[in-house]
């Protein structure tokens, strides 16, 4: 008997098309899968704890996880002790992919292995209606596959949806129903099972997305790094229509929070109309929190923008060894909790006279060098990213060389000019006399 079972998909269960040829599914079974789907924030966090068993005679050293959800997502696999497992993504079609996860031990025949998979989805909770009036609740819906979609059979599957507020409607009868928890239990789920469930909820918070963030990091060896974020945000929630009824308004936009490094100084927050004083700064031991509000409430369908700027001391982020320098700081920092950043551009300007040696990029961003060329001594590095969420906060490292004498050049030029002028005056005086 062959140890490998090549799965030929039948059209009924597959989302479409044939499985990619690199996917040769090994012989295993999901003994038990416990899924928790957290619908309490704007991003959906799903955790699957999978106990599998090797059925084949050959040792099992990889596991195929399949997903047929088209939404943006970030996925991480861990072993039972929380250590990350490496994986390779194999595209199936526009909505589906396989993840070939490398197990950290060889699982013998009939032995079990436990792993977990954490998925964060963006855009999985969407407005359920097109518009609402000011005194109506915002209805949103979640659509997901309640079954465990897998190339392996699943003997037991327990799935729980966690809600913040009681739901309004659910399209499929649950095994257990509580006001803020919907539970389903399934026995013997076939491969590639799909059964969509729709949950309608009330969520009056703003559905904020960062349409665009332009960050500039200006490194000066005179003591400070100047950071400026120009942020365009939009409320992607249900569009508000009809007369404004201040008193009965259900829409809340609340305060926004962002976090800055503890060493931040000189914080400024403004928008196109100028100083926006609706801010408050809290100093904690490890960080600073800025609480702010946009000048006008960010109601459903509305856009707003703001500029946040601050300084951080250069010695916290630039390591120096003779003429070799290394800038290490977050390319993108915390923006807002649980939001998607649709587009980001980070411009890092090194001091005049710096020579870039090496750039180590964070995963989420790509190098898009620009260096406008107007000043050959000026070094600019441009990074770009799209559809970022979850683990977008990571360091960029730029190694460069810089001659400290360069810094003396500007004052030197000025003093030479002054001395020159003084001389001219003196000489002039001498000749006049
Ligand atoms: C992907 O999903 C969308 C929406 O669910 C559907 O309309 C489309 O046909 C799917 N595409 C494929 C290739 O299955
Ligand atoms: C849910 O259960 C009720 C009775 O308990 C039944 O009348 C109804 O048809 C079921 N709905 C679905 C979607 O299965
Ligand atoms: C903005 O306005 C507030 C209140 O009027 C004032 O306290 C603050 O200093 C101003 N900030 C700037 C940067 O002008
Ligand atoms: C990122 O950079 C900061 C500041 O230089 C440093 O303290 C931190 O250890 C770095 N983090 C990683 C993961 O390298």
Name its key features.
single chain, 433 residues, mainly beta, Immunoglobulin-like, 2 domains, eight-stranded mixed beta sheet, seven-stranded mixed beta sheet, 1 helix, 31 strands, 6% helix, disordered N terminus, binds 2-acetamido-2-deoxy-beta-D-glucopyranose
Give an overview of the whole structure.
There is one protein chain. The protein has about 425 residues and is mainly beta. It has two domains: about 180 residues, tricorn interacting facor f3 domain (Immunoglobulin-like); about 200 residues, tricorn interacting facor f3 domain (Immunoglobulin-like, Sandwich), CATH 2.60.40. The chain has one helix and 31 strands. The strands form seven sheets. Strands 21-20-24-17-16-27-30-29 form an eight-stranded mixed β-sheet, with no helix packed on it. Strands 4-7-2-1-11-14-13 form a seven-stranded mixed β-sheet, with no helix packed on it. A hairpin with a 5-residue loop joins β1 and β2. It is flat. Bound molecules: 2-acetamido-2-deoxy-beta-D-glucopyranose (4 copies). Pathway: Protein modification; protein glycosylation. Belongs to the OST1 family.
């Amino acid at each position: 008997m062959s140890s490998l079972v090549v799965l030929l998909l039948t059209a009924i269960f597959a989302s479409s098309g044939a499985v990619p040829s690199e996917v040769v599914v090994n012989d295993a079974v999901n003994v038990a899968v416990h899924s928790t789907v957290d619908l309490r924030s704007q991003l959906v966090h799903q955790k699957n704890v999978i106990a599998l068993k090797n059925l084949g005679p050959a040792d099992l050293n990889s596991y195929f996880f399949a997903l047929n959800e088209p939404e943006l997502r970030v996925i991480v696999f861990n072993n039972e002790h929380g250590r990350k497992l490496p994986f390779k993504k194999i595209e199936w079609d526009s909505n589906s992919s396989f993840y070939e996860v490398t197990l950290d031990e060889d699982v013998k025949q009939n032995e079990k292995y436990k792993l977990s998979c954490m998925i964060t989805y963006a855009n999985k909770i969407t407005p359920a209606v097109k518009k609402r009036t000011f005194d109506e609740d915002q209805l949103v819906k979640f659509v997901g596959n309640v079954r465990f979609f897998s190339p392996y059979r699943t003997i037991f599957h327990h799935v729980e949806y966690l809600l913040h507020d009681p739901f309004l409607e659910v399209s499929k009868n649950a095994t257990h129903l509580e006001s803020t928890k919907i539970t389903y239990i399934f026995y013997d789920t076939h491969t590639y099972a799909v059964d969509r469930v729709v949950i309608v909820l009330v969520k009056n918070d703003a559905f904020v997305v960062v349409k665009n963030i332009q960050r500039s990091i200006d490194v000066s060896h005179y003591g400070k790094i100047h950071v400026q974020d120009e942020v365009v945000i939009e409320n992607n929630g249900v569009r508000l229509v009809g007369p404004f009824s201040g008193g009965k308004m259900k829409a809340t936009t609340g305060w926004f929070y962002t976090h800055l490094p503890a060493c931040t100084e000189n914080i400024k927050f403004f928008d196109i109309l100028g100083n926006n004083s609706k801010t408050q700064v809290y100093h904690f031991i490890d960080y600073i929190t800025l609480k702010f509000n946009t000048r006008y409430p960010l109601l459903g369908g509305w856009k707003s923008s703001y500029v946040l700027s601050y300084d951080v001391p250069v010695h916290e982020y630039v390591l120096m060894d003779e003429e070799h320098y290394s800038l290490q700081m977050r390319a993108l920092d915390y923006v807002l909790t649980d939001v998607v950043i649709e587009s980001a551009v980070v411009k890092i300007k090194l001091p005049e006279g710096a020579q870039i040696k090496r750039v180590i990029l964070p995963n989420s961003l790509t190098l898009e060098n620009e260096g406008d060329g107007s000043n050959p001594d000026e070094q600019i590095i441009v990074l770009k990213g799209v559809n970022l969420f979850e683990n977008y906060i990571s360091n960029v490292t730029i190694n460069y060389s810089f001659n400290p004498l360069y810094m003396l050049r500007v004052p030197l030029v000025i003093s030479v000019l002054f001395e020159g002028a003084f001389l001219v005056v003196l000489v002039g005086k001498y000749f006049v006399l």
